[in-house]
Structures are given as C-alpha cells and as structure tokens.
RDD family protein
Amino acid sequence: MIPKEAGGGRIGLATFLDVLVATFGGFLLARGTQDGSVDLGEHVLTVAGYVVAVGFVNQVFGMWVLRGSLGKLVTGLLVVRAKDGGRVGLFRAVGRWLVGYVLLVLMVAFGEGDTVGQAAGVRTVRRADLRAPAPAPTPYGDPARHGGPATAPHGNQPPRPGAR
C-alpha cells in the first residue's frame, strides 16, 4: 500500500528550506569564486546560475540518492513513485525538477495548481507512514469469524498433551 501524500504545511516548510539551501548555497559558491573584477550584471547572472545549480543538486541527486532533498529529509518526508511507492530514478527526478519550474510559474501566475510531484509521477510522503508495516493479510480474513479455529489461548502455543 502506498501512503497518502503528506500534508501541505509540511511540504511547504520543506520547500521553504530547499529554497534557503539553494539561495544560500548559490551565494556562498558565487562569493567563493568572485575575484572582484566582475560588474554587477555579470554577478547577478553568476549568483542565479549557482542558485539553480545548487537547487538541481539538492532536488535531483538528493531525491535519487537519499529519497528526498535536504528540506524534505529535515521535515521527515520522502519522495516515492506514486504508482508503487518505490525509489525514484534519475530521469524521473530530473523530470520532476523541470516540471517544478514550469508549474511554479503557472501557480504564481494563476494562484492555483496541482502538486509538482503528482505531475511527474512521484509523491511526497511522511517517512513514518512509509516505514509503518502493513498488516499481514490473511487469505480469508479472521478464521474464527468464519467458523474456523480461533487463536490458541496461551500465546498461540498449542496445548500440551493431556492438559485440560
């Protein structure tokens, strides 16, 4: 069974943290590579390029290798395939990242939109929901309810021979 999608508040917090990671990571990389001879126009493009690069690494490689970006992992979320709950592959992670930018523009423009993950065939779920063991199915339900033998009264151990 595939868990339902995590709540919007937790996903929003994870997205906010991912934006912070990309922004500060991009600024730190740009600052470390600046030699002071670049004018402001080139500096803005450099920072923007680094922000996009850090966001790509965080989102795509984080999802592919760790099953979630840094923001998702901090908030206890994981990204799984919507179809079967399995691991997200590299190409699907890249697709989700690209679809995310397009949908983000549409959501800002129109004020509404579906989740980015569902559009790319992935789902963001709570880590606790994914790790919760599914109840073991019995072929016909509870045997005692259908006239079959009930469970043993002493911890599922058969009675000793000669015991009453």
Summary: The first strand starts at residue 77 and ends at 81. The mean pLDDT is 76.
